Amino acid sequence: MTFGGIALIASDGGTTSKLWLTLSVIGAIVAVRLVLSLITRGISRRHPHERVVFWTNQLASLAALVLFLVAGVSIWFDDTGRLTSVLGLATAGLAIAAQKAVTAFAGYLVIMRGKTFTVGDRIKMGGVRGDVISLGFLQTRIMEMGQPNEVNEQEGPGMWVRARQFTGRIVTITNDKVFEEPIYNFTREFPFIWEEVHVGIPYRADRARAERILLDAVRGAVRQHEEGAAAARDALIKKYGLELEALDPQAFWHLTDNWLEMAVRFVVPAHGVRNIKDQITRTVLREFDAAGIEVASTSMEVTVTNRHER
Q1: Burial level of 51, CB count in 10 A (0-12/13-18/19+)?
Q2: Count of CA atoms in the C-beta half-sphere (13 A) of 49
């Protein structure tokens, strides 16, 4: 076969046939992939479901890749011995030139097979906390969220949102992180977390009433989530045989040199924690004011007495 009077390298009849067959296979795969994408988009317009659309596209892309590799090998390598040699060289080359990419793809398979997380889950990965918005073969994208002050102080600066709310930044992380550090999932099988509210009161205050106010404020804020949390807790116990503590709010006292610290422990959904704690805080302050209970602080009251000499 010649082109412009120039003979192409290794362009005998067999090679030309294989080339055209390969191009035909690629065209067919692309056409099928496009049709599936159009069908998925049409269905999603009538019945919006982001996760179904996402995973349909993921499976379609993966299937197209596998079909292309199988077809390519079948067309070009009819000699088993030659195929073994090529695969060996290709594997060695990939291991050296694309080590990170291969590891990231392996991480993707681990995430998929191990059900580590999926789109919509709230996770911590690669030092980033937030909601997964995209999961690809090599990378995961997370909509970043902030953290409470005490967490920011432990893990360093760089965060201006002082609660578990979105910062607006989308962070891209390679999937190989699953081999390097733990992956924290806040919502996978138990979409609730235990939270605490800490309040210090003077030792002279009515401690029993202060505790009742705290517990009532917490119960009022989390009452609507109790049924869902109980169902999720029962499912987790049944699946893993865990011995989880009761979900009812509990108050704990702690002695300090300056005041009595009261902590109330309770269960809340992984999303919307800041709103719930804000509601609790406002209720507690209002009831404390009505009961004449002060919130302890490190401020000092100094009284100066003037003595006049006679």
Answers
A1: exposed
A2: 11
How remote is the C-alpha of 206 from its chain's centroid?
Answer: 43
Instruction: Give dist(CA 301, CA 194) in Å, integer.
Output: 37
Query: ∠ at Cα 96 (91, 100), nearest 5°?
Result: 100
C-alpha to C-alpha distance for 162 and 160, rounded to whole angstroms:
6
Please tell me whether the overall predicted TM-score, pTM, comes out greater than 0.85 for this model: no
User: What CATH number should be reported for the domain whose range is 192-291?
Assistant: 3.30.70.100
Question: CA 150, CA 169: separation in Å to the nearest integer?
Answer: 21
Give how far the C-alpha of residue 59 lies from the chain's centroid of Cα atoms, to the nearest Å: 21
Nearest to 199 by CA among 128, 282, 117: 282
Q: In the chain, where are the structural domains located?
A: 14-97, 122-185, 192-291
**Tens digits of per-residue pLDDT, 137-173?**
999 999 999 987 666 555 554 678 888 889 999 999 9
**Residue 137: DSSP 8-state:** S
